[in-house]
Amino acid sequence: MSNHLARRIAACLLAAGLGGQALATELVYTPVNPSFGGNPINGAWLLNNAQAQNDYDDPDLKDRSSAFAGTSALERFSNQLESRLLGQLLDNISNGNTGSMSTDAFLIDVIDDSGALSIKVTDRATGEVSIIEVSGLNP
């Protein structure tokens, strides 16, 4: 009888194992790259990893960066001062004042003729003259 009992127990265990409900979920692909629908927060991380792995040196980059890095404090100050003086010259037009300004590169003449503004810019290197005329200004 023990053989018969062992068979019944084995059959019950087998039925219980096969009769249980299988639990599974659907597999869903989620992209990582934000260009393909992934989370936008991953963009900076992906870019930083790509740049860290990039060992290519752009030869033109050195030429472009030297143009900006080569300006001295004196050149920056001179450029800012010229810009400020030119702005002040144009602001004085509202008071009826005209004037001129001379820089290393340009000669600038500002003339206000009863609301018709004329700005003459002369390039010192080439002698090329550019005239800007604006009408309808209130004197």
Task: Explain what this protein looks like in three dimensions.
By secondary structure, this protein is α+β, with helices and mostly antiparallel strands. The protein has four helices and four strands. The protein has helices at 2-19, 42-53, 59-69, 73-91; strands at residues 99-102, 106-113, 116-123, 129-134. The radius of gyration is 40 Å and the shape is rod-shaped.
Keywords for this structure?
4 strands; Curli production assembly/transport component CsgF; 43% helix; signal; alpha+beta; rod-shaped; 139 residues; four-stranded antiparallel sheet
Write the layout of secondary structure elements.
Layout: H1 2-19, H2 42-53, H3 59-69, H4 73-91, E1 99-102, E2 106-113, E3 116-123, E4 129-134
Antiparallel strand pairs: 1-2, 2-3, 3-4
